[in-house]
UniProtKB/TrEMBL annotation:
InterPro entries: DUF3562. It comes from the Bacteria. It comes from Paraburkholderia panacisoli. It holds the Pfam family DUF3562. NCBIfam families: MSMEG_6209_Nter. This is DUF3562 domain-containing protein.
Length: 65
């Protein structure tokens, strides 16, 4: 995972979901580790991880209401 892409994705998710970047960064790193374990093809990891983090954050926001 390259640093500029990681930061860009984290900042975009944080902005879109009104979530602190630190929280998104932690979730992204944890999800990346989970998804990359045993993965042979990494081409779409950024997209898949970002999607899962967004889904999880939307679920948290929905549960608060």
């Amino acid at each position: 995972m390259t640093q500029p892409i990681f930061e860009d994705v984290v900042n975009a998710i944080a902005s879109d979901t009104n979530t602190p970047a630190e929280t998104v960064s932690k979730m992204y790193a944890e999800t990346w580790a989970e998804f990359s374990e045993g993965a042979r093809i990494m081409d779409y990891m950024t997209v898949l991880v970002a999607r899962r983090v967004r889904e999880n954050l939307r679920g948290v926001a929905r549960d608060r209401h």
